[in-house]
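Inputs:
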Amino acid sequence: MSTFDFLLQGLATALDPMILFYALIGVTLGTAVGVLPGIGPALTVALLLPVTYGLDPAGSLIMFAGIYYGGMYGGSTTSILLNTPGESASIVTALEGNKMARAGRGGPALATAAIGSFVAGLLATLALAFLAPHVVKLALVFGPREYFALMVLAFVTVSSAFGDSALRGLTSLFLGLALAVIGIDQLTGQARLSFGVPQLLDGIEVTTLAVAMFAIGEALFVAGQGASLQDKAIAVKGSVWMTRSDWGRSWKSWLRGTAIGFPIGAMPAGGADIASFLSYAAEKRASKHPEEFGHGAIEGVAGPEAANNASAAGTLVPLLTLGLPTTATAAIMLAGFQQFGLQPGPLLFATNPQLVWGLIASLLIANMMLLVLNLPLIGLWVRLLTIPRPWLYAGILLFATLGTIGVNPSPVELGMLLIFGILGYLMRLFGYPIAPIVVGLILGPMAEQQLRRALAISQGDLTTLVDSPVAASLLALSAVALIVPLIMRMRGKGGVLAQMAGDED
Amino acid sequence: MSLHFPEKPRRPDGAAFVIAAGLAALGALLVWEGNRLPQLGGYAGVGPADVPKLVGWCLVALAGWTVVAAFRGAFPERPRQQVPPLLWIIGGLAAQLVLLPMAGFSIATGILFACTARGFGKRQLWISLPVGLAFSLAVYGVFDRVLELNLPAGLPETLLYGG
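Outputs:
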């Protein structure tokens, strides 16, 4: 069967009323968390994981993907109206979008962000559908050493290629890898670093770490700044409709943003924040009105917003076809798959095509829902910004602990939540990125297994790791991604990389 | 009473040395554990002890790098921090942890709620405590009764929702 047939079948799954309902919950929640500062899609999926334990796997995963997409839409609202990005991928949007809102053009800014997200989401999801089967074919020839090399590449790009310091990125990654060692070794059953504490034998839960880092660490960090001021949202004045010239200036930016965002998400090259930054730079160069940049150029909103949505779709390519998460949100979605006993990868396309294609097809539908949620109903979301900070963060911590209590109400688990929360706070304080520790924890055991399998096949010969062309070039690429940014920083050109700092989503 | 971290530019940054020491200690722990574990390499020649050792040595190396970075003043400046809000939130989490088995979900979480709100500047505990309790009770109803999550029940839950 062709991709098209699979996609049609997927649409049939996705149009099931129950699945539609899950998708609607997902996109609504996603938009809400995108709008609210302080919580992003990664945290929301982590919080929902325990709640969905007893629910339908397909529906839950569709809901998670809806949250991811919705977060990318909602983040722009906060950026434009508040000048505080709702999530990290919308930092660039704040540059031009907030200027537009101050100039009374908030309506068109929101519109171009929403329509651009829609266009990008649609095109990128279709690209995902047509690219995925090819990657799956490629992945079938991958052995343990190729997977190991791929994971090394993901480790490097997540931790040290972007951001302001390779040292802090790598430190965060290795903290994650150290935590990943705790528990029973999956190949021999040997207990490691458990010190006789039975709760440690199962290892550290990815959700516990993610919730602690993103919810508690963030809450402590914001509280520590002591700013009890409430930011004031700029009211949307005038028409939300874009003029003819707005459309004319936007559509090329949408397409360019999509073309930049999707490959960046699809290759293990970093998250949506990098895509949106690159798109902004491209728009600035391509614009016929470069003088408007910095004063509210509509291209500077349209391009990056399209790029961050396209990259969210792109991230699903390695996640679904290889089981390789390249962002924190993807890492937690992988934990979601594992919770239902599903391992994303080439096999999933063969054993459970209904689920995979249903998921892809429902992303198309989720996109339409998001357009409706974000254009006519924008006033509703703006109200969310008026929730006072004390109530907002008190609620976040309530739900953060709820998930852990629901799964395992032991003092050990809650104690870990607290300790990792304080660790997350300290990491934020000293400028350590959060995503590498989460990715290290979930990918660490997988990389170790692949490495040991590869070495078992070669009977301990280390050269096997570079013996195949694919593995060798992946490892070489990792080395380049590690060394080139180091040299750039040493030559004082690190500023560009620092601006691309990928943090949360 | 707002304590904060010293702001004056100290060189080299003292905090970096504490971080480096912590990383080195963690690395040493992993290496020690790796040496303690039986070597079950089998065909691979790489057993369960090797990856902890590798990660441990990398952490030790990163600790060394951190020290170098500290001497070169490559540590970023930190935003000024206020300690009392932090203590309110951490205290709230700790209180929840201790109270949960005895008092049940709503009381423990209500206290966490009020403490967090206090940390963010909501001083009126006589407002935030009942709000937190009521909200937690509602959340308990939705998640324990409707979504079948197992939350520890206390007196308020039993009174409101039955045993």
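Remarks. The mean pLDDT of chain A is 84. Residues 3-226+244-499 of chain A form one domain.
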